[in-house]
Amino acid sequence: MKIFLYTFLFLISLSLHCQKKEFSQEELETKIEEFILTKKLDSATYFLKNLDKSEYKSILEKIALNEKLTYKEYNILFSNLSNRTSIRYERISNFIDETIKTPETNQFNKSFFQIKCDQIYNLRDDVSVEKASEKHRELEKYLSNFNKNDIAIQKASLRIQTHPIVLNLIEKNVEDGKKLTLECLEKSRKLNDLELQIMFMYHLSDFLVIERKLDEYIKISEESLALENQLQKHTPYYHAILQHLIDAYIYKGGYTDKVLKLIDELYNDPTYKIQTYSLYLKLLGRPDTDTLIRDQVLQKFEVSDIKQLVEKFQILGKDLNQNDFYKLLFESSNALVNNDFLEEALEVKDQSIALTRKIYSQDLSKSLADFKIEQVEKTKQQEIENEQEKNKLYSLILVLVGVFLFISLLIIRKVLRQSKELTHKNEIINETLKEKELLIKEVHHRVKNNFQIVASLLELQTKGISDKKALELVNEGKNRVKSMALIHQKLYQNDTGLIDFNEYLKMLTKELSIAYKQKNNVETTIDAVNMFFEVDTAIPLGLIINEIITNAYKYAFHNEKENKLSISIHKEAEHFKLIIQDNGNGISEDFDIKNAKSLGLLLVNRLVKQLHGTLKQLNQDGAKFEITFKDNYTRGLVH
Prior knowledge:
The protein is of the alpha+beta class and 639 residues long.
């Protein structure tokens, strides 16, 4: 009796302790939203008691009590959910599909239309283009039910054209995408809708970037900004337009006063303040930025030189996400170089390279982890269901043991039914596995596209660089990015998860021969047949080969002679051997590649260590590099 009493008192104490735990209002909202998504409405109701009174709380209470919401209230709910980075948007989209039904009235519902527009946008960016296109078709069908002469329907029909415009932009179909954008812009002007005009001018500027029409890009962005200033409330495109103009002005040069004014405007907005640090550094990284502008920025942040400014921005920008912090490091390096802090610039560049690898690893690990978690959950659910079925079967046998024949017939019937269910479940699992394989391929596709965007930005950056050394560094960086992009292109194009290095080397040498087009008479021999590597080996190996071939093009090859380059990879006992040889003048006898100071050769040495390998340099009718390395499986055996 005493044990029971003590246990009872302990449970009461524990309950009171849990009730005392305090949550912030934002944490409470997040918990309640999670309970609503998982349909645990009793738990949502419990936590709602501690939430401060607001319009949003009343919306959450209605859902918890299974009361009907208006489309406008649903719009507020889904906008809040979409801003939660902790919730995968696919879950929100599924909740929308379960909850929101197409209005059955003959009246156009603007709030319903806005919900579906936002769903298309978020699905396209966070889930898949295919699902976004499916919702786009559904919304087109909805609009077809109304009078096309109605101004509201005309505006809505124009608004959903942003989806095909963005698809053309993704596919780089400039001709069709730009034509559609201009048509929509003209219709928006006839309707005198400033917000629609700003929207389509923003998308038009994206096509002008691809066409490299800088003056038109600046003109369109300035017109968009002028329209924004006519509105009582800025559109969601306003801050993006400011950043477009800042980038364009910096790239063209001669607009430093305007650039500083625009950056200061963003800085004064608390939401965008932290994003402006990289923009200030981008301005100071330009050779044409005068001393007066530089001194204004230094004075604003109470520092004496660029080195101190970079250090301060790294502290102020500690809350940036990893991608934005990489951008801050990138612009920091450029600003340090332009202001003669070369040693510090190299240190920051090393930080950015390390961060890039970390981002890549984390993104890939997260995608794989999510996939594995889902599979484990499904396996556990399958085991639970099977165990429940077994218990039912055993109970049935015990209860009806006296009528053996009748039980036998029931078992046979049940086994047949379970067989069909299992077959159906296996089909679902196989379909899910196919979807996950497509997801992994999509990840590689997006990473490849991101690398190509970085390469394109570096290409644009070279247009404004007059210093030969800086231009060479940027071009080398661009080639490194392209070598990694090729890896992800090969992964996206096959189903094995391995890169055929014979094909990869052909593509890489072709890219480099184009980059050094003035030295195009190089006879290249490649021998890497049946050499396949996974991504953790392929990335560093590709970068190593890129650096050595780049040095050959820069120092070994001349137009006056017959140039030769050979690359081979073959398997030895416990490792692989990579040999790269050219027929140039060779390497100076007193040169030690392991103690080289150049960024490229430093990178080669670090990557060789990463592959648990060795690096050997020889002079043999030219320069010869022998590199031994281990693949991912062999390296794993060492740990």
